[in-house]
Amino acid sequence: MAGPFGTTTMTIQVAYRDDKEGRAVTDVEVREAAPDAPAAGSPSWDPFAELEAWARRFGHRPPRWPALLSGFEGVDFTPLADIEESDDAWMIEVELPGVKKKDIEVETRGRTVVITGERKEKERKGVLRQRRRVTGSFRYEVTVGGEFDPEAISARLADGELTITIPKAEQDQPRKIKIG
Predict the structure, then answer these.
(1) Higher per-residue pLDDT: 73 or 141
(2) pLDDT tens per residue across span 107-163
(3) What backbone phi and psi angles, to 5 degrees, belong to 109?
(4) Containing H/E element for 103?
(5) I need a labelling partner for 120 at 20 to 30 A (CA). Which of 4, 24, 42, 48 fits?
(6) Is residue 110 a contact partner of residue 132, using CB atoms and an 8 Å limit?
(7) What contacts 98, CB < 8 A, 6 or more positions away?
(8) Residue 160 CB coordination number (10 Å)
(9) Residue-range domains of the chain with CATH
(10) pLDDT computed for residue 142 by the predictor
(11) Which residue, 126, 86, 79, 71, is CA-closest to 104?
């Protein structure tokens, strides 16, 4: 079948079976695959390659995919992060390779920490044959489980990892009580 984006492969599978009353029933399943993609379920089928083929049809990035994947409108990606809690602080470690300090903002809103910024595209002299790295704006938001002093928060960027330390408010820190 030829469509606006080229040739599309259609797979039609017909199965015959008997229903509970002994009548013949026909099941028809129709699948549409991306051009040049092996059929789903075949040993050489690669679902990611099929998604990439569909993405190429839309000019590399399908419209609104980045926003749908990141969960925030106007944001291209959400970086990977770990959150660790100790007795006296929360520590957030966010992977941001290739991002400069000047391109990152950290702010608080109540008990929520919001990290935003941009990973900029490198200037290239040759022809880019394949692109796997994500560039563009990012946003990461986390709400911590207690009170903290926004003035006591510290942030450090080293080796492509942003580390934010949020000391807990004194009333949220555990205390040992001596039994008399």
Answers:
(1) 141
(2) 999 999 999 999 998 888 888 888 777 888 999 999 998 889 889 999 999 999 999
(3) -140, 100
(4) none
(5) 48
(6) no
(7) 119, 122, 133, 160
(8) 11
(9) 2-17+24-63 (no CATH), 75-172 (2.60.40.790)
(10) 93
(11) 79
